[in-house]
Amino acid sequence: MSFLLMLSPASRDPVQSPESIVKALQRVIADFHARPTYSVTGKGGRSFQFFATSITDNIPPLHPQLSAAVCLLSRLHLTQVHQATLGVGEEDRGAMIISDILLSYNLPRTLARWTPTGAPGEIGIPLTNEYIPEGSIQVYLNGVTARDRVVLVDDLISTGGTMVALIESVRNAGAEILEVFTIAEKTENQGRQYVYEQTGIQVKTLLASDIEQKKDGTFSRVLHCNLGTLNGQIFEQVAAQFPPGFCRPGSGER
To answer: d(Cα 63, Cα 225) in Å, to the nearest integer?
Structure first.
């Protein structure tokens, strides 16, 4: 059975099987944990530790089971998606998984692009993030109207620069943003706080990570996971399969 069928829009609630949720979490955690990092220069001329994953960079290629796991877990966080008329993401790096998530809700979807099309109504917004310095690039958004109610999805929040650009693009089109979700958060770069300060929007995330220095190099480390709206009894059953305190209710809100 394909994940799109398993997570069909007719099923309004997240899968409430502890076994399914644990397996999905294990797959996503494995993709983000203990990845080697290297330095890149981006926002503010600062140096950041960057790491690639299947979800964010298709390194190695994104497996359908991993995509299915992310789509399943997104249902614990995207509580207003069924009121949405449009899903919005961006085409760099996480475009594949973003499109998979939005497709699982049967939503029309559009991705902000890094090159202009010149189409009427196109909105261009400057972007900066952990590997893009200021003044280097813009994102270009098409297809959003003032009548739309939007769910914003991205693969990762690091410095928050990409998400702020996406939010500004959608708002410049006159649309309403219902909720914002990212699969992971690099906590050391405080992107969630930056987005809130700049836009007033709370970003929902599934995983929180940081950077760990070891003898043989610098690696990513998953700190905890957020289980959104998972009900109390099933939350306890899922949490029991991980270290104490690793699983948290909610979506990482302030």
So the answer is: 21
